[in-house]
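hey m, so remember when u said the C-alpha cells were messed up on ur end? i reran from scratch. heres the input so u can diff it against urs
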Amino acid sequence: MIESRMLLMFFTTSILLALSPGPDNLFVMTQAAQQGRKAGLLVTLGLCTGLLFHTAAVTFGLAALFTASTVAFTGLKFAGAAYLLYLAGNAFRAGTDSGPTAVADHLKPGVLYRRGIIMNITNPKVSIFFLAFLPQFADPAKGQLSVQILLLGGIFIIATLIVFGAISILAGVFGERFRRSAFAQKVLNRAAAGIFAALALKLALAQR
C-alpha cells in the first residue's frame, strides 16, 4: 500500500490543484453566487461524482482512449461546450425575482447535481489529467495498481469537496447581497451567462 508520507504529499498537491483557477471551481463559484451556497454545494457533489467516472476511466484504461482517439476527444469536448452554451442561454434569459425566498423557490437539487456531473464528465481533459497525475503517486511494488489508483482518486475527491465546498459558502454569502436587488441579480445573471460562454469556448478550443 502507498506510504502515508506519499499520501499526505498527494493530498496537499490535490488541495493546491483544487485552489488553482480552473473551469470547475469557476463553475461552482458562479452557481453559488447566482443561486446560493446550497446550489454550489450540489454542483460540487455532481462534479465529484464526475471525478468518480474519471478515476474509473484511468483505472480501467478508458482515459487512454481520449489520449489516443481524436474522434472521442473531440466528440466529448464539443458535447460539453454545447451544454455550457445551453446553460449560458438559460442564465441570460433568467428572471430577476428578488427577496429572501427567491433562491429557495427556484432551487432544484436534482438539476444542479446533474449540472455538476455533466460539466465534469464531458471534459475529456480531466481524464487525461488523471491519467498523467494519479500514476505518479502509485508504485507497483506497493500492491495492485488499480487499488492504488482508486485510493488516490478518492483522496483527490475529498480534497475537491473541501475546497469547492468552501468556495460555495463564500460565493453564496457574497452573491446573497446581489440577489436582494432585481437590477443586481440581472447583472449577476448576465455575468454568469458570459462566464458559461467563455468556458464553452475554452473547452471547444481545448487540445489534447
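this time it looks ok to me. The chain has one domain: 39-95+106-204. if urs says something different then somethings off w ur setup not the seq
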